[in-house]
Amino acid sequence: MTDQTTGQITGPTGGTDGPPVADPHDNRRQVLYWRLLARLFDPEEQVTLESASLAVVEDIGLPPALLDPQASVDSIVQRHPDLAAEFDGLMAPEPNPEDGARDRAAEVRRAALVSKVLLNVFASGSGTVTAGQLARWQSDAGWLERALGCRPGELRGGRAGGRMAGPGVSPTGTGGGGTTPDLSRLIPAIGPELGAIEADLVKRMHLREVLADPKLAAQLTPSMSLIEQLLRDKNNLSGVALANAKSLIRRFVDEVAQVLRTQVEKASVGAIDRSIPPKRVFRNLDLDRTIWKNLTNWSPEEQRLYVDRLYYRHTARKTTPQRLIVVVDQSGSMVDSMVNCTILASIFAGLPKVDVHLIAYDTQALDLTPWVHDPFETLLRTKLGGGTDGTVAMALAQPKVAEPRNTVVVWISDFYEWRTEPLFESMAALHRSGVKFIPVGSVTSSGRGSVNPWFRERFKDLGTPVISGHIRKLVNELKTFLA
After folding, report:
1. Which DSSP state fits 312?
2. DSSP bridge pairs for 425
């Protein structure tokens, strides 16, 4: 007879008389996952795997459309509404069953549904993408997010939430040695990957077609790749398309600004100025000091503290007027830095007694100072691409230095310049005059970026090494100087 737990043939006394017999449910699940891997790495159909998978899907009562790569999850759910509940939380972890038993038939069913979602999202193909294909992918990506226990758009927006595996939850999502994938632990990595796929699809399609359709444009997730595309093509847009492009740029700017503003505000600028009397308002009341100073007025009989004097905290700060000059290379390789630093400049421009100037350049320089308080308007005036000639930017920056000791110049570029020595000599002259000169190789969310080795070595010898990495490094440098 056959042992129902192990799947092995046993004799009358319970001993094993032969080799173990494979569980048919395990075989079915493996067929589905082998097909998934084959289709992910090779778009060509493997006839044997396709026919075997079709037999499995039909046998477990699921629609054959699950194996059709052209069928969206939306279309399947519309025809089979009962499947919507199964897709929700499909890959979120489940508690371990109390008896340790696995529902192998349910695992096969989940494997078929998981394969459909993963293939539709990650097998994005190649070549030109239509607006309809992008909309279908976005819908399928939303179903993947729902399967992971998140809201549609949540992962692509970089705000990974969802239900994560906790105590008593198997990392495989089935408990007790199950093999159905639980991707919830990979949420931090899946979010950026979905964003990268969407950015690639946008790059391969006619973006203007999407922007001309308000419904499709509203479904786009603002990302650095998308903003780069919009900034490059903004002069070719008009009407509804231009309005939708501006809306996406503003959404992205507002989201990044919120993050950077929090980083800037973590430390106040300037030391406390105790020569200025504290403002006598309730929010400045120093309750601990007030109680301590009035303890001699405590009445034990009345159990009451009589307060003769209130004490307030000092909030005024000593601030010397500082000038911040930000020079940004707007060539094609520096788009990420251009966007981040434009937003950062606007935040520092809002601080008291900080005079911010912004210059963008390629082979020509543009003084963007009049719009520095509005990064959205600033970005609309940039012109990405072209070569680089930092000497034209230096010609605009030098006259802005009035008091070198109270001036910081932040120069953001990869420093692959046409005229290297004249530019470096003018930078060294600024440094020697007392200006705080900060060369920055990249100011990105990823921290990646390359810098011309010739400039890197000379900045190091000058005592002003290149900052290259996450934007937090630049924020800390600027707060140290302005404090």
Report:
1. B
2. none
* Complete DSSP assignment for 206-273: -HHHHHTSHHHHHHPPP-HHHHHHHHHHGGG--HHHHHHHHHHHHHHHHHHHHHHHHHHHTS-SSEE-
* Per-residue pLDDT reduced to its tens digit, 408-454: 898 988 888 878 899 999 999 999 999 999 898 866 554 456 688 89
Cα distance between residue 225 and residue 336, in whole Å = 9
Instruction: For residue 473, give the 3-state DSSP assignment.
Output: helix
Residue 228 CA to residue 202 CA, distance in Å, equals 11
By three-state DSSP, how is residue 67 classified? helix
pLDDT exceeds cutoff 80 at 267: no
Place of tokens 């190649």: 126
Q: How far apart are CA 111 and CA 113, in angstroms?
A: 6
The DSSP symbol for 326 reads: E
Q: For the purposes of burial, counting CB atoms within 10 Å of the CB of 455, is it exposed (0-12), middle (13-18) or buried (19 or more)? A: buried
Q: Where does 266-334 have alpha helices with state H?
A: 287-293
Tabulate helix, strand, coil % of the chain (nearest 5): 50, 15, 35
pLDDT of residue 435: 92
Contacts of residue 360, Cβ cutoff 8 Å, sequence gap at least 6: 327, 328, 329, 330, 338, 366, 368, 382, 393
Closest CA to 434 of 401, 410, 466, 460: 401
Kindly provide the residue ranges of all beta strands, DSSP E only, lying in 239-388, ordered along the sequence: 271-272, 298-299, 304-305, 317-318, 322-329, 354-361, 365-367
CA-to-CA distance for 410 and 324, rounded, in angstroms? 8
For residue 19, give the 3-state DSSP assignment.
strand
89 φ/ψ sector (left φ>0, alpha ψ -120 to 50, else beta): left
Task: Answer yes or no: is pLDDT of 44 > 80.
Answer: no
Bridge partners (DSSP) of residue 443 are 469
CA distance 468 to 448: 8
pLDDT tens digit sequence for 285-310 = 888 888 888 888 888 888 888 888 88
